[in-house]
Amino acid sequence: MEEEKAVSPKNELKGEAWEWIKAILIAAALVFLIRWFIFATYVVEGPSMQPNFHTGERLIVNKIIYSFRKPERGEVVVFHAPQGKDYIKRVIALPGEKIKAINNKVYVNDQELDEYYIQSAIDDRDKSGKKYTEDFPETVVPEGSVFVMGDNRLNSSDSRAIGPIEYKEVVGRADVLFWPIKDMGIVKH
């Protein structure tokens, strides 16, 4: 017959404590990996993305999506701006495309852009006889870059001022608005 070894309560407690420590370390490592390599949080600062995003709102940014594909028109992205801060803007034009604004309308490759995401704001400005988007001359987006604009065209430092944004400067796509809780939801692109 085999003899059963008795485990002292002290050793049993040590074993259980060690299992808890391992579980906590694994969880912390997973949180670190997810936070630094897959997702990030971003706090909206300033009015440049109104009426869709407001100061103090918090977003979850998908950092890995552009490892598999390039940004697409209409997506809301966070990028490293030349001033050393991260900005949030909307992708308006892609590499090789021509972009310009004339008479309150944005054109990509001479086709008027459907700006459904800010149409009500454009209409409100039109009613008062004011422009929502100032005219700017035609620009060709370089390869490996995107042309971004804030949704609040009259109050945004974007590609019209700082130039096209290189892919390598794009942090990721804003996917979820999680604060304030009453506005929580998936970001519409």
From TrEMBL:
SUPFAM superfamilies, alphabetized: LexA/Signal peptidase
Pfam families, per this entry?
A: Peptidase_S26 (PF10502)
Gene3D superfamilies, from UniProt? Umud Fragment, subunit A (2.10.109.10)
Q: Which reaction does it catalyse?
A: Cleavage of hydrophobic, N-terminal signal or leader sequences from secreted and periplasmic proteins
Signal peptide positions on this chain = none
| A GO MF label | signal peptidase activity
For this protein, the Enzyme Commission number is 3.4.21.89
Q: How does it sit in the membrane?
A: Single-pass type II membrane protein
Q: Which residues form the active site?
A: 48, 89
Instruction: Give the subcellular location.
Output: Cell membrane; Membrane
Which intervals hold domain Peptidase S26? 18-179
GO cellular component: a single term:
plasma membrane
Q: What class of enzyme is it?
A: hydrolase
Q: Where are the transmembrane segments?
A: 20-44
Provide one Gene Ontology biological process annotation.
Answer: signal peptide processing
Which keywords, in A-to-Z order, does the entry hold?
Hydrolase, Membrane, Protease, Transmembrane, Transmembrane helix
Its primary localisation, in coarse terms, equals membrane
Family in the record: Belongs to the peptidase S26 family.
NCBIfam families tied to this protein? sigpep_I_bact (TIGR02227)
Official protein name in the record: Signal peptidase I
